[in-house]
Write a structure and sequence with these properties.
With 300 residues, the protein is mostly helical. The protein is 78% helix and 0% strand. The chain has twelve helices and no strands. Helix 4 runs antiparallel to helix 6, helix 6 packs antiparallel against helix 12 and helix 7 packs across helix 10. The longest helix is centred in the N-terminal third of the chain and has 29 residues. The radius of gyration is 18 Å and the shape is globular.
């Protein structure tokens, strides 16, 4: 398969989005004592709303805001499934079975995305791309296991059935949300498409945050709020815009592969920021991930 300008640009955009997300996740993790996960998800979404509102209202845009009504529905559903329900279920799974088990299960979503894309958006089956998707997922799982094992997890935490179910549901929601995003964003300016997603995501996180507060979640500290808000500007605000653009340039199946490489970037950031070590197995996982992405992009 020939490398078209869209594939090259889309891959570059997706890798940049993954890098921004990876950096933000490492920073969020460093603030875990001052803010709970739902607080992080809510604040970064609200920051993204402010950012996207400014971008949409800028007089420098060549065309006014315009999104067909049918696209609004699909864009709203995509953010609800992925960024709201998916992220929330993932956080619950992580609390129950630990990140070293929850993350690999959830990040297997590119495989399911491939089959959903074949069924609903006429994605052709390309053996080398499918093989690259599987190799990428295996590499991500290896990196995650090496990178996260031992981070405040109980040795038997993986036996929590509900936690495993939540992680599996996260995988389904991420895959479904990506395919639906491709449908909703088709023919729409990526800024406008992302703004619709952020509007609905911001509104949905209001009751989630209030319910969490009612159930005893402490208010985030002022320092943690500032750090999360600043980081969210890049990880969610800019990152989500890049992700929508990537899905438009590539397709749901390939975008899910490129977009799942955040762990690849999280390793060097964690080494520099959190002073963590790089194991040989993690290095092997990185090599597999790179090979898998290359196979998926340069499909033949």
């Amino acid at each position: 398969m020939q490398l078209t300008p869209d594939i090259i640009l889309g891959t570059a955009v997706g890798l940049l989005a993954s890098a921004l997300w990876a950096i933000s996740v490492v920073v969020y993790r460093s603030q875990s004592e001052g803010i709970r996960p739902i607080g992080i998800s809510s604040i970064k979404m609200w920051v993204a709303f402010v950012f996207m509102t400014i971008i949409v209202l800028l007089p420098l845009r060549p065309a006014p805001f315009s999104v067909p009504l049918e696209s609004v529905f699909f864009l709203a559903v995509s953010v609800t499934l992925g960024a709201v329900m998916g992220d929330t279920l993932y956080l619950s799974a992580q609390e129950r079975i630990g990140v070293s088990y929850a993350f690999p299960i959830a990040m297997s979503f590119p495989i399911l995305t491939y089959f959903l894309a074949m069924a609903f958006v006429n994605e052709p089956f390309i053996l080398s791309r499918f093989a690259g998707t599987i190799i990428t997922v295996i590499g991500i799982i290896i990196i995650s296991r090496e990178h996260n094992t031992g981070h405040n997890e109980e040795s038997e935490s993986w036996r929590d059935f509900i936690g495993i179910v939540f992680a599996l549901l996260t995988m389904v929601l991420f895959a479904s949300g990506t395919v639906i995003l491709q449908i909703g964003a088709a023919g729409v300016d990526p800024i406008d498409a992302n703004y619709v997603r952020i509007i609905f995501g911001s509104l949905e996180f209001i009751p989630i945050f209030l319910i969490a507060r009612h159930q005893g979640m402490p208010m985030p500290t002022r320092r943690a709020t500032k750090i999360v808000a600043t980081t969210g500007l890049f990880g969610m605000a800019i990152g989500s815009l890049l992700y929508v653009w990537m899905v438009q340039l590539l397709n749901a199946a390939l975008a899910s592969v490129v977009g799942s490489t955040s762990t690849l970037f999280a390793v060097p950031v964690s080494i520099l920021w959190l002073k963590e070590d790089l194991t040989r197995m993690a290095g092997f996982g990185i090599a597999l991930t790179v090979i898998g992405v290359m196979m998926a992009v340069v499909a033949f």
